[in-house]
Amino acid sequence: MAGNLVKAELEILDLRHFSARQLKGLLESEARVWQQRLRWDYTGAIELLLQYLDSRILPGFVALDRGKVCGYSFCVYEGYKAVIGDVFAVENHVLSPLETAHELLRHLVQILDHSPEIERIESQLLLYNSGDLGLPFERKGFQNYPRLFMEIDLGRFRVALRPGSFGAAQRLPAGLELRRWLPADYQPAAELIRMAYEGHIDAQINDQYRSLNGSLRFLHNIVRFPGCGIFDPRSSWVLHDPESRALAGILLCSRVRNDTAHITQLCISKQYRGRQLGGFMMRHAMGELAQGPFEAITLTVTEANHPAVRLYDELGFTVRHRFDAYVRETQGTRPSF
Known about the structure:
Aminopeptidase; about 30% strand; 13-stranded mixed sheet; 2 domains; 10 helices; alpha+beta
């Protein structure tokens, strides 16, 4: 009973009742946490979010302690799917930040439960340790996919590396060339992603991988929006057959801080697997990035994706942080188009 009384003192209100100005201080606090925990400059994402907040269209909730904003959550609708975009809370007089986050998530999932058009809910909240948010998701039947946030410090490699030298020991198969990303790669890259992730565990986590249209949206989010950093075409690479123009692999990279690069996608065509091309592309990218202003490279990988985790271990990446991806699909898997 006492716990329920404490929770009742924390007000949970509709996010659309609040302006960007009212939430700016909380979002600035969140940006500092992203810097400290993940070496991530989150200001670009926050600026975009503030614009959406002022448009009063984002579904979500705000937590108030004695009239002061102490937490928020929101989701984004993508047709039949809802993606929980964020939840964040700070110290207050009622609940701990984690307990406040649980309350915000509970309200958000409850709203989605009463949205008959929503058949699937996805969530990847990188700031939280694996297990931190388990209770509100597991009570509602979500499946958990543990993921790893990995990094490598480039400083100790900088003197030894020269452009291209890290991957020089391995030769490309005949008929393949490596070059930087071009705008013309957009459509073929989406086709490669759809085919490469067929039956893959990551397609269970992110259903955009299951269709061409979804893969195009995925690329659009990486290349055009700052949520995953600022896309860096000069640090993104394509393996291709210059005669057929078919793509054998892609490695996409964004700048998440002035000194930190983030690998947003590494994908090898099924036709070319087993030839260590993923390792070749990673070594080449690492060698190139080490010559610039970057001090570190980060990436995320699903823990059950053992070949990828093993590759990153061999390259010298270490686990900085474990987090969870949660998924619930109520109407079965939709067909790919």
